[in-house]
Amino acid sequence: MSATCAPVSVDFINPFLNSAITVFRTMLGCELQRGKPYLADSVQPKHEISGVIGLSGKAIGTVVLSLEGPVALKVAEAMLGEAQTELSGDVVDAIGEVTNMIAGSAKAQLEHLNMSVSLPSVIMGRDHKVAFPGDIRPIAIPFDSEWGPVCVQVGLREQVD
User: Residue 97 belongs to what domain range?
Assistant: First the structure.
């Protein structure tokens, strides 16, 4: 492997961007406004809670849904139909499920890559880190919403035979 980072193709990013917008709109009733995507320079997600899913197949990588605690509470409230006041197991499950829906929808749009999606993991706490596979430098897609900021990071590259 080279010392430089593998570029992440826009063709790989757009399905995740579109999926995040669609999942938040249809499943949660929340509109996301996309900010300017940027090359993430750290393995540290922008916000305190991260839903993480690994992808494998003809492409490998990781997808991270990153949000602040108050946004996570609103996500869980929208999914569960009742107000959430603390970062409980139900909130963790809701973030994992939303991350799974975003990755699953994007995977369907990238059918030619024949990818498998791992079970979601949720990491909580300030300054946590998420490692992307070896030479992949993720693209971060920030969003604003009525609930607060959300960020989707995608680090994905095609496998070389």
Answer: 10-32+40-158
